[in-house]
TrEMBL record:
GO terms for molecular function: G protein-coupled adenosine receptor activity. This is Adenosine receptor A3. It is found in: Cell membrane. GO terms for cellular component: dendrite; plasma membrane; synapse.
Amino acid sequence: MPVNSTTMSLANITYITVEILIGLCAIVGNVLVIWVVKLNPSLQTTTFYFIVSLALADIAVGVLVMPLAVVISLGITVHFYSCLLMTCLLLIFTHASIMSLLAIAVDRYLRVKLTVRRSQETPVTFTSQELKNSWAGSEAVSGVYKHLTLGNYYWSTVDPIPAVNSPTLFHSNRYRRITTQRRIWLALGLCWLVSFLVGLTPMFGWNMKLTSEYHRNITFLPCQFRSVMRMDYMVYFSFFTWIFIPLVVMCAIYLDIFYIIRNKLSQNFSSSKETGAFYGREFKTAKSLFLVLFLFALSWLPLSIINCITYFNGEVPQVVLNLGILLSHANSMMNPIVYAYKIRKFKETYLLILKACVVCQPSDSLDPSIEQASE
């Protein structure tokens, strides 16, 4: 017994230490993501608003979920409904992440599907102020494609000075009509509302208190996840309905996005450099965001499979369960790393922020540099 107790003690210490490290990395990394979007005007688009929502969910995992997971792992004696609320909070932010990923996938699909190429001969006029604003900082990126939003069009060119002839334009009127500021906020609100409703469902009766004779007669108990949470809720409602099905839908969306982009590039106007640059950029962005989705699935599916095995009367060692929990929580610190490696503007802004922190430069002074470093 003393040996087993010592072993369990060492296992708990290791588990808690890793949880703390993951939590700190998740908080720092995702705060940095939000800071990057705030400082970089070119990242303040619909997709990145949903990425900020995902970052907020990951910050909540670091601030709330991991400390609660440590408390639950120690089996501290608390009131039944206090323990149930803590376990529900673990689920809310998981579903907030999956709903944010779904919103990102839908937004990228609409952007690719509803953006069409206009004729190169279409006459276009811009005010001097529009031209001045649109080409600010272009000297720093001469010879590199600049994709500038002008009204309802995306203007692409390799020339840092606007050409006399009308450039290739990508009409995005329908996309802009759909993704209005009001609808973006409604979508964000809906994502979080669904997450809270799904995560808090056990508080309204789908828990061990109302279905187990033993738990019905007790008020305080050692707080353990399985002591208060019904596994049929975890398997059928939380996993299959609100994690697995959205994952399948998102995979189908990204496959369709890649199919659309491939078709666009293979059509007659594929020889246009501007068209190739536009859809090439969309392809790279879609690949980066699909990688985020893949890592989410890779991190959360093992724990969900463990829950399924447990529900169908299987035995899973505690060490395996703890590894599954740690892997799911580690997903919260992965996304900032993906953004840094796969999205150039994120990497550039990360470096500018780190440089400013080293020399104690005020963050406001970063803005001109960031605008020059944008696409």
